[in-house]
Structure formats: structure tokens, C-alpha cells
Specification:
The protein has ten helices and 14 strands. The chain has about 290 residues and is α+β, with helices and mostly antiparallel strands. The strands form three sheets. Strands 1, 2, 8, 9, 10 and 11 form a six-stranded antiparallel sheet that branches. A six-stranded mixed sheet has the order 7-6-3-4-5-12, with helices on one face.
Length: about 290
């Protein structure tokens, strides 16, 4: 539970990553009273953030997934990963959600929206962002389009988000990718019309079930073995622990608020002379008395 596992299949030029989130997912979702469709949606986004973010090689790097629309039920969806810590939240129109179907489609939630995936490198300070339309039946399908369009890497994504017998949220995911060969003089991977090795691995990956992805009793290594044990050597990396983590810092918040003028402090304060700064991620409020600034 609450871990990410990387692996590779050298004979097939493929790599993969599996994620399962339980208590950490509950910690994020329980900070807000999300309706079930939105809890499911945010759970899927957090799995994506864990799958992508745990591939970052630089310590301190950050992966952010953001979906925003101007006319959708969901106004803003954010999930990010940094150093094994996950956070996320959803801002939505409650009245429009109440009129939506019980199991709304991606289009019903977002309308004409876009998915932005941003990689921030801590050491070099470089930032890379890819943007793709929110198309398909799920966030996973939209993210697959990101890899095809922005990274030109054939990829497979499978995600399951559900509740266990006690009503606790649990989610799991699988990311499979075909590795570029990279030898000098060889054609680039994305210009080929077919990839027989990749099609074989993809077919095997597509057999994974939602129950396997979200079964807390089934170890991630066991799922990898079930899927690919006939492929020869499977190299498995050390698992990465995952946890809910919010980076709101009372000291930093006070320093930022302190940079405003006295007139602006007066405008921000309530009738009791208190400025309340809310964190959307963890739903905590940080009160600051104007007289202390």
C-alpha cells in the first residue's frame, strides 16, 4: 500500500511502473467532502501524478497535473507529486454537478478542456510542459495521448479507483512504455509504422484487471509477475513509498502576507482584524492577526 514500483523488460525494450495508494488517498480525499464522482476523478489524477512523478530522476523534482475549463462542471483539477508526497484538489460547480448523470463522462465533467502535465527539474531549474485535449473516456486515455503527442513514446495506462469493504478508498495504476533503442544509425522509434515488441507487451498489459490494480492484498511485484513472467528477465527497482503531503508553511505564509502594505492588510482582514489564508490542498486555515504584522 502507498508505494510505487518500477520495472523493466529488457528483451522487449519496455519499462513500466505500478502504483497503489490506500491510506494516502484517503488522507487527501477526506480533507474535502467531495461527491463520489469527483473523489473518483481526483483519485485517478493522483495515481497519474504518482506514476509520472516517481519516474523523475532528480531528487526534489516535481510533477504537476492540471485540468482546467471555462465551462465544465469541474473548474479546476490539480494533483502533484514531489519526493513521494502527493496532494490534490478539485474546484467544481456544485449546482451543475447535481444536474449531471450519476456516473458522468469525462466530457460531462470538463466539456472542452485541456490537460497540462508539467515536469519541474529541481537541479537544473528547467520546466517542461505538455498540453493535450481532455479527450477519451478517462484521464488515463487523455494522458496516453500526451505521451504519443508530446513525448512520442508508445504508452499504455490503466487505472482503477474504488472502495474496499469498509468504505475506504483505494486506487492502483499501471504505466507501460516502449523504450527508444537509441543506437546511432538506427531509425527513431516514432517514425516506424509498427512495433511488434511493443504490441506484444501492450497486449499483455491490457489484460490487467481493476481488481488486480486495486487489491490491497496483492503485492505489486505479484501483479508484474502475473503479467510478464513469460518474457524472460524482469528487472524490478526498489519501491518508492508514497504519502499525502502538503507544503503549506505557516512561517512562509506569514512572510508573504507581510510583504503587502498596511492598506492591503486592512482590505484582506475580517471584522476581527484577522487575515485568514486557506490552503486548498489540505483545507486548513491559517489565521494572521493584522496587529502582528
Amino acid at each position: 500500500m502507498d508505494s510505487s514500483l518500477g520495472f523493466s523488460i529488457p528483451v522487449r525494450n519496455a519499462r513500466g511502473r505500478m502504483v497503489r495508494i490506500g491510506p494516502a488517498l484517503g488522507d487527501v480525499l477526506n480533507a474535502h467532502a467531495y461527491p463520489e464522482p469527483l473523489a473518483q476523478l481526483l483519485g485517478e489524477a493522483l495515481v497519474l501524478a504518482a506514476l509520472f512523478g516517481s519516474t523523475l530522476k532528480e531528487a526534489g523534482g516535481q510533477l504537476t497535473i492540471q485540468a482546467q475549463t471555462q465551462s465544465g462542471v469541474v473548474e479546476l483539477l490539480v494533483a502533484d507529486y514531489k519526493g513521494g508526497e502527493l496532494r490534490g484538489y478539485v474546484r467544481h460547480d456544485a449546482e451543475r454537478l447535481a444536474m449531471a448523470p450519476a456516473d458522468p463522462s469525462l466530457f460531462a465533467l470538463f466539456g472542452q478542456g485541456y490537460l497540462a502535465i508539467t515536469f519541474d527539474q529541481a537541479v537544473t531549474g528547467e520546466r517542461y510542459q505538455g498540453i493535450v485535449p481532455l479527450e477519451g473516456g478517462s484521464l488515463a486515455e487523455a494522458a496516453e495521448h500526451y505521451f504519443v503527442q508530446s513525448e512520442q513514446i508508445p504508452s499504455l495506462l490503466r487505472i482503477a479507483v474504488t472502495k474496499d469493504a469498509n468504505g475506504a478508498w483505494i486506487a492502483g495504476g499501471l504505466l507501460l512504455q516502449h523504450l527508444a533503442e537509441g543506437e546511432e544509425g538506427r531509425e527513431r522509434l516514432h517514425v516506424r509504422l509498427d512495433h511488434p515488441e511493443w504490441e506484444h507487451v501492450r497486449t499483455l498489459g491490457e489484460t490487467v484487471t481493476s481488481d488486480e490494480l486495486a487489491d490491497p492484498e496483492l503485492e505489486l511485484e505479484a501483479v508484474v509477475w502475473r503479467l510478464f513472467h513469460d518474457e524472460g528477465e524482469i528487472r524490478v527497482l526498489s519501491p518508492t513509498p508514497l504519502a499525502k503531503g502538503c507544503r503549506c508553511d505557516p512561517v512562509h505564509i506569514r512572510q508573504v502576507v507581510g510583504q503587502f502594505s498596511a492598506e492591503e492588510h486592512a482590505d484582506m482582514a475580517d471584522k476581527d482584524g484577522v487575515i485568514r489564508v486557506n490552503c486548498e490542498f489540505c483545507a486548513k486555515s491559517f489565521p494572521i492577526e493584522v496587529t502582528e504584522l
